[in-house]
Design brief:
The complex is a heterodimer. In chain A, helix 4 runs parallel beside helix 9 and helix 5 runs antiparallel to helix 9 (172-205). Chain A has 18 helices and 11 strands. The relative contact order of chain A is 0.13. Chain A is an alpha/beta fold. By secondary structure, chain B is α/β, with parallel strands linked by helices. Chain B has 2 domains: 2-76, Methionine synthase domain (Methyltransferase, Methionine Synthase (B12-binding Domains), Chain A, domain 1); 87-206, Cobalamin-binding domain (Rossmann fold, 3-Layer(aba) Sandwich), CATH 3.40.50.280. In chain B, 55% of the residues lie in helices and 11% in strands. Chain B is built from 9 helices and 5 strands; from the N terminus they run H-H-H-H-E-H-E-H-E-H-E-H-E-H. Chain B has helices spanning 2-10, 14-26, 31-50, 56-73, 101-112, 126-136, 150-163, 181-187, 196-206; strands at 87-93, 115-119, 140-144, 171-175, 191-192. Chain B has a 5-stranded parallel sheet, with helices on both faces. Chain B is elongated and about 55 Å long. The chains are: A alpha/beta, B alpha/beta. Chain A binds chain B through residues 95, 100-102, 104-106, 108, 110-111, 229-230, 233-234, 236-238, 280-283, 286, 359-362, 364-366, 393-395, 397-399, and chain B through 12, 14, 53-57, 60-61, 64, 96-101, 147-149, 151-152, 177-180, 182-183, 185-186, 195.
Chain lengths: 418, 210
C-alpha cells in the first residue's frame, strides 16, 4: 500500500495473507481478539450483550472502527447465540451472565463427565444415535424427552417404522423437546443472520474477520465435551484403543463442519482452539500418541479442502514446535499463548506464520510506555522478515482501552517493512 | 509384596495395585503399613512429575488408584493416626471464576507433599478466604484463576486479607491461565507459580521445609 493511502478491506487482507504465506507485508498486521472487550468499551454489560443483539453488534462495531485492527476476532466466536437460546434449551454446559456468573462476566464452560467410560461402545456403535438420545438430553434439560426416542435406526424399516415413531413422538416429553428445539432454532437464526449481516457490514467498512469457521482437535472433542479432562486422561491408561477410536471417528466430522461453515461465511480461515495438548498437560510421548495425530489429520484435511487452519496453541508449545514444522509451508496461521515466540520463529520461521506475543496481563496492568516497548521488541525479534501477525496471548476482555490504543499505535509506528 | 504395590502404583498399573492391596490385607498386613507404602509411592510420582517425566494424566491416574486403595484399606483401619503436616495452605479459585482443573492439581500435589490443604472450591469471594484464614491460621494462601477478569479478584482478595489485618501472617501465591509475574505485582501477591511443582516449592520454602 502506498504511503498516505487509506487502508481498505483488500489492503488489510493482503497484509494478513502475506504474513500467512510467509511473505513480507507492507507492515506487521495486527489482530485484536476483542472477545467481550466491546461490551465494557461500549457501555453495556455482558449480560446486555447476551440478550440484545443490536446493542452487542453496535458495541462491536464501535470497537472495530475505533481501533482499526487488520483482522478482528468475530463476535460470533465469543458470544455464539443469545442467552434466550440457552434458557430455552435449559443449558447445563455453560454458565452465562445472570445464570451462574455475574452480569459483567463472560460465559464459562462447566467441566464435566458428559459421557461415562462405559458408554464408549454405545458411542462407537452409532455416534449420532448416542448424541441425539443420550448426550443432548444430558446437557440440555429441555431435551430430556429425546431419551424416549426409539433407536434412530428404526427409520430403516421404512413405512413399517412409522407406527413405532408415531407411538412415541406424540408423547408429551417428546413434544416438549421438539417444541424447545424449534423455538431455540428460530431464536438462533436471528443471531446467526445478525452475525452474517454484521460481517458484510464490516467487510464494507474495510475490516476482515479473523475466522469464519471453528473446529477442534479430536482429543479436545473427547476431553472437553464428552469425557471431561479427568475422564479422558484416565482413559489414556484404561482404554486407550477406545479413546483413539472415538477420536478417529471425529476427524471427518470436524473437517466437514468447517467446510459447511465456510460455505455460509465465505471466510476460509478456521479457528482451532487447542486445550489439552500443551507442554504441561501431557508428555511428548502421550502427545505423539493421543494428541498430535488427530490434530494433524484435521489440519491436513482442512488444507486439502482449501481452507486456512488457524490453530490457537493455548499454554506453551515450547517442546512441541518440531511437530508443527511437519505441516505444509505457508498455509497456516498459528497463534501462540505462552510459547516462546522467538524460539517459535526460529523453528517455524520459514514455514509457518506466527502470531501472538502481547501478554494481556500487560494490557490490563501496564503503562503505555511498557506496552510500546514490548511491541517494539516483538517487531524487532519475531516480526523480522515477515510471517508475523501481532496479537495478544489471550482475550482482551479486561484490557484497558488506552493500552490497546498504545499497542495498535506502536505496531503501526515500528511495524513498517518498507 | 510392599515392593510390588509400590511398583504398581508408580507405574500406573491400576488392577495390579488393587490386587496386591487385597492380598496384603488378606495376608494380615497392617493397613497403616499399606497406606505408608502408598504415600511413598505418591512421593515417587510427585518426583517424576517434578522431573518432567510424568504429567497430568499420571497425577490423575495415581490419585484414582490411591482413592480406590484407600476405599479398601480405610475400613480395616482403627482410629486414624494423626500424621505430622508440613504446614497449612488455604487455596481456592477467586471470585468470578469457576475453573478448577489447575487448582485441583496444586491441591493434590500439596497434599501428597505433606501439607494440610483447605480447598475452598471455585468462585470464592474475598471474605470467604478471610474467614478461612482466621479459622485455620495457614502459613500459605493460594489464589487460582483462568479468566482474565480474575486479576482484579486476586487484587481484591489480597486487599481483603490486608484489611482484616492478616497480610503479615500469610504468604500468598497465585497461578493459573493468563496469570504471570505482572499480575503478581498488580495483585500484590508474594509469588507467582507457573505450575504445581512451583507451588510446592514455594509452600515448602515459606513453611521452612526443604
Amino acid at each position: 500500500m502506498a504511503a498516505g493511502e487509506q487502508d481498505s478491506f483488500e489492503s488489510r487482507l493482503k497484509r494478513v495473507n502475506d504474513a500467512i504465506e510467509i511473505k513480507v507485508p507492507d507492515r506487521v498486521p495486527i489482530m485484536l481478539e476483542f472477545n467481550f472487550f466491546p461490551a465494557r468499551y461500549g457501555g453495556i454489560t455482558i449480560q446486555d450483550a447476551f440478550y440484545d443483539l443490536d446493542g452487542w453488534l453496535a458495541a462491536c462495531e464501535k470497537a472495530i472502527v475505533d481501533f482499526e485492527p487488520d483482522i478482528y476476532f468475530p463476535p460470533s466466536r465469543s458470544l455464539h447465540v443469545s442467552g434466550s437460546v440457552h434458557e430455552i434449551l435449559g443449558e447445563k454446559q455453560i454458565k452465562w451472565p445472570g445464570h451462574g456468573v455475574g452480569p459483567d462476566q463472560p460465559f464459562q464452560f462447566v467441566e464435566g463427565e458428559y459421557m461415562t467410560a462405559d458408554e464408549y461402545d454405545q458411542f462407537l456403535a452409532d455416534p449420532s444415535d448416542f448424541i441425539v438420545r443420550t448426550y443432548l438430553p444430558r446437557i440440555f434439560t429441555a431435551l430430556e424427552g429425546l431419551r424416549m426416542l426409539p433407536s434412530l435406526r428404526s427409520g430403516q424399516s421404512g413405512y413399517l417404522g412409522l407406527p413405532i415413531l408415531s407411538r412415541v413422538l406424540a408423547t408429551p416429553p417428546l413434544i416438549e423437546a421438539f417444541d424447545a428445539l424449534s423455538k431455540a432454532a428460530r431464536e438462533s437464526l436471528k443471531w446467526t443472520t445478525g452475525y452474517l449481516d454484521f460481517t458484510k457490514k464490516m467487510d464494507a467498512l474495510g475490516f476482515p474477520a479473523y475466522a469464519g469457521c471453528v473446529t477442534m482437535a479430536p482429543f479436545d472433542v473427547v476431553s472437553d465435551f464428552l469425557r471431561g479432562m479427568r475422564g479422558a486422561m484416565l482413559d489414556m491408561f484404561r482404554c486407550p484403543e477406545k479413546l483413539l477410536a472415538v477420536m478417529d471417528s471425529s476427524v471427518p466430522g470436524q473437517i466437514a463442519s468447517a467446510v459447511a461453515q465456510f460455505q455460509s461465511s465465505g471466510n476460509r480461515r478456521v479457528f482451532i482452539p487447542l486445550h489439552r495438548g500443551a507442554d504441561g498437560f501431557m508428555s511428548l510421548e502421550q502427545f505423539e500418541t493421543f494428541y498430535w495425530p488427530g490434530l494433524k489429520s484435521v489440519i491436513l484435511g482442512l488444507i486439502e479442502a482449501g481452507l486456512t487452519p488457524c490453530p490457537f496453541f493455548e499454554g506453551s508449545y515450547d517442546t512441541r514446535l518440531e511437530y508443527l514444522a511437519e505441516l505444509p509451508a505457508g498455509k497456516i496461521m498459528a497463534r501462540f499463548d505462552r510459547t516462546d515466540l522467538v524460539k517459535a520463529k526460529e523453528v517455524l520461521g520459514g514455514s509457518m506464520c506466527v502470531s501472538g506475543g502481547m501478554p494481556v496481563s500487560l494490557l490490563q496492568t501496564g503503562t503505555p510506555e511498557q506496552v510500546e516497548e514490548h511491541t517494539e521488541m516483538l517487531i524487532d525479534t519475531v516480526g523480522k522478515d515477515g510471517g508475523f501477525i501481532m496479537g495478544s496471548n489471550s482475550v482482551l476482555d479486561e484490557a484497558r482501552p488506552e493500552l490497546v490504543r498504545a499497542w495498535v499505535d506502536a505496531t503501526i509506528k515500528y511495524g513498517q517493512y518498507t | 509384596m510392599e515392593e510390588e504395590l509400590m511398583d504398581a502404583i508408580v507405574n500406573m498399573e491400576e488392577e495390579d495395585a488393587l490386587l496386591v492391596t487385597r492380598n496384603m490385607l488378606d495376608g494380615g498386613t497392617d493397613p497403616m503399613r499399606i497406606m505408608d507404602v502408598c504415600r511413598q509411592a505418591m512421593e515417587v510420582v510427585g518426583q517424576r512429575f517434578e522431573e518432567g517425566e510424568y504429567f497430568v494424566p499420571e497425577l490423575i491416574m495415581s490419585g484414582e488408584i490411591l482413592r480406590q486403595i484407600a476405599d479398601v484399606v480405610r475400613p480395616e483401619m482403627g482410629e486414624a493416626s494423626q500424621e505430622k503436616r508440613l504446614g497449612k495452605v488455604v487455596i481456592g479459585t477467586v471470585a468470578g471464576d469457576i475453573h478448577d482443573l489447575g487448582k485441583n492439581i496444586v491441591t493434590f500435589m500439596l497434599d501428597i507433599n505433606g501439607f494440610e490443604v483447605h480447598d475452598l472450591g471455585v468462585d470464592v469471594p474475598p471474605e470467604k478466604f478471610v474467614e478461612k484464614i482466621k479459622e485455620v491460621g495457614p502459613e500459605v494462601v493460594g489464589l487460582s484463576a483462568l479468566m482474565t477478569l480474575a486479576f482484579d479478584s486476586m487484587k481484591e482478595t489480597v486487599e481483603a486479607i490486608e484489611s482484616a489485618g492478616l497480610r503479615e501472617k500469610v504468604r500468598i501465591m497465585i497461578g493459573g491461565g493468563a496469570v504471570d509475574e505482572k499480575v503478581k505485582e498488580y495483585a500484590r501477591a508474594d509469588a507467582y507459580g507457573k505450575d504445581a511443582v512451583k507451588a510446592v516449592t514455594l509452600a515448602k520454602a515459606w513453611t521452612g521445609g526443604e
